[in-house]
Fold:
Amino acid sequence: MEKIRVILSAELLVFVMFSIAEAPPSANLSLNFYDVSCPSAELMVRNTVRSASSVDPTTPGKLLRLLFHDCLVEGCDASVLLQGNRTEQSDPANNSLGGFSVIDSAKGVLEVFCPGTVSCADILALAARDAVETMIKIFSSKGLSLEDLVTLSGAHTIGIAHCSAFSDRFEKDSKGNLTLIDSSLDGTYAEELMKRCPAGASLSVTVHNDPETSFVFDNQYYQNLQAHKGLFQSDSALFSDNRTRKQVDDFANDQVGFFESWGQSFLKLTSIGVKTGDEGEIRRSCSATNM
Structure:
């Protein structure tokens, strides 16, 4: 699998790129890895993400989810982009992943200007970073423990979900209608979800993760949890569990604090299982290993 050589952090809202030097795995981190080999790498990825997001506002959520699935399975090695049998993409659990075309587009541009230089793993990490930056561009300020879990769950402030992803909160009665069986979900919100996702709804039907500010990366997700409007059962659990409830309340009342924690937890996430030095390869195409 590929190496990831850029590690992303943030001070409030401005994300800063770091990299792992082209050296043995124990090497220290250094700044601006592509400054010499491909000075415009970040700009090209950022422009690709912004262009795609302007056409499809669900793009940022897709890119964030794509990165999470990549990093949490085999480490941040872009293996989720590989196509074919017995790949991560072929796993039914990943059927709803999207954003692949954005990564392919960015890779295509980079291969023209900096052939064989920028890894797909780095492109994916940069694209996910820029996806968040795209969502919060109206702000100008600078900004995987249990705490990281609460923080990274905040990614549900944007994006969409298929009805099947939260169907376990309902059951079908004898007449074929859905009824709410999860008392942790707000009744009015549940009614809205059942209207959007009735029994027998098409597999293509989706709802927004955040019913309030679905296209803005903000702290509304945590306010939704306080109002018992977490879309997934795992979301609601963060508010009902005494170990995590205080952090939910803190983030709901402090957006800057959420952004600061997001930067720190995002750095941890994109450091999982990184490949450095002679490990991995820089693929010519993100969807296949080099021959």
Q: What stands out?
A: DSSP finds ten helices and seven strands in the chain. The chain has two domains: 6-140, 146-266.
